[in-house]
Amino acid sequence: AQSVTQLDxxxxxxxxxxxxxxxxxxxxxxxxxFWYVQHPNKGLQLLLxxxxxxxxxxxxxxxEAEFKKSETSFHLTKPSAHMSDAAEYFCVxxxxxxxxxxxxxxxxxxxxxxxxxxx
Amino acid sequence: xxxxxxxxxxxxxxxxxxxxxRCDPISEHNRLYWYRQTLGQGPEFLTYFQNExxxxxxxxxxxxxxxxRPKGSFxxxxxxxxxxxxxxxxLCASSNRQxxxxxxxxxxxxxxxxxx
Lengths: 119, 116
Known about the structure:
Shape of chain A: globular
Strand content of chain B: over 45%
Structural class of chain A: mainly beta
Number of helices of chain A: 0
Order of helices and strands of chain A: EEEEEEEEEEEE
Oligomer: heterodimer
Number of helices of chain B: 0
Helix content of chain A: under 10%
Radius of gyration of chain B: 14 Å
C-alpha cells in the first residue's frame, strides 16, 4: 500500500521569501515521487519527479525537492517566492517501477497544499 | 498533438440522467487513467487502461460507472443515473510504458460535472 501526507493544507508567504511545502510518504516498494501544481481552471502540471536517481531533484520555475529515505520525506522548496507561484500543490507517489501487478503506474495524491503569496 | 484533451470541459445535468465524458490521450501513450477530484481533495484513482484492456478499477467506481477504451486510443467514462455526490472534476491522464519504465503522467484539464 502507498500513501502520501501533506503536512500543511495552507501555506502563506511573502513575495521574495523562501517556500517550503512538506510531504511524507509511505510505500511498500521503492517509490517514484512527484510534485504537481494546479492553477485555478488549469490542468495539473508536473513540477518535478524523483525516480531513484539523484536525491536532490530540480524542477521547473526554480522549485526543487529532496528525497530523504530515512525520513520518508519529499519536501518541495523554492528560494524566493513569486506571485505567479500561488496555486495548489500536490505531492504524489507511484509504486516502484520494478514491481509487478496491476497497480503499476497508478498515482496516489496527497490532499494538497494551497500556497498563497502576498506582495 | 499538444497534450491530453477532455470533452466537455463542463457538464451540468439533472439527477438521474446519464452522462458521458471523453478523453483523448497523447497519441503514443499506451496507458490511460481516470481520476476524480472533489473540492478540497487530491485526485483519487478510478480506473486504468493499458491499450484497450481495463486492468484496474477502484472500489470508488460503483456499478453506475463504466469506462471503455475500445481501440486503445480515446476513452469514455459514462455515469448512469447520476447522483449529487457524483459532482466532481473528472480528470484523465496518460503515460507511456517503455520497457520496464513508465513515463510521467500528463493530465488533461478535466471535465467538471455538476449534478443538480
